[in-house]
Amino acid sequence: MQIGPKADSRAKKRQKGINRNFVPMSEINVTPFVDIMLVLLIIFMVAAPLLSVGIEVDLPNTNAKPLAIEKERPLTLTLDGDNNIFINEVRINIQELRLKLLAIKKERETDEIYLRASKDMEYQKVASILALVSNIGYSQISLVTDTE
After folding, report:
1. pLDDT for 34-68, tens place per residue?
2. Average of per-residue pLDDT values in the chain
3. What is the pLDDT of residue 28?
């Protein structure tokens, strides 16, 4: 390493060379922004269908408080106005209901089930499904309603 006037002149020449070749960029590089936006678009496209319940049911209105969300996806039994029965979003026959619920109960940690029934359903039909679910061993049966 040299110290003195000769070293200073070399440093100045290097510095001048850098400045002479440097040309400022006059445009914005938008490629990283486009990449980020495309990734966000894909995430929202995948997540959006998961946010809605797949079966339309005209629920009765009450002024009950919402239930706390559990860690495990809640088991939902849905009875629509056309006498169809669904476990989550899968349609099943009334004859298969008992066997399916027994199999699901063995796999799940909780014995909680949400019952969604159309307000146009006969009370007798809803009561018989409630009795069946209770006899299988689900002790925490919650009736789902809409708010007023």
Report:
1. 999 999 999 988 888 776 656 677 777 787 776 66
2. 80
3. 84
Distance from C-alpha of 139 to C-alpha of 133, rounded to nearest angstrom: 9
Q: Structure tokens of 137?
A: 């061993």
The H or E element spanning position 112 is strand 112-117
Are 80 and 57 in contact, with CB atoms under 8 Å apart?
yes
Q: Which helix (H) or strand (E) holds 78?
A: strand 75-79
Put simply, whether the predicted model's pTM sits higher than 0.85 gets the answer no
Residues facing 143 on adjacent strands: 115
Rounded Cα–Cα distance for residues 130 and 20 (Å): 84
Q: Are 77 and 132 in contact (CB under 8 A)?
A: no
Neighbouring C-beta atoms of residue 9, cutoff 10 Å? 10
Task: Take residue 81 and report the two structure tokens written for it.
Answer: 């106005």
Between CA 82 and CA 98 the distance in angstroms is: 20
Which backbone phi and psi does 78 adopt, to 5 degrees? Answer: -120, 130
pLDDT band at 94 (very low <50, low <70, confident <90, very high): confident
Domains and CATH numbers, the chain: 5-50 (no CATH), 55-147 (3.30.420.270)
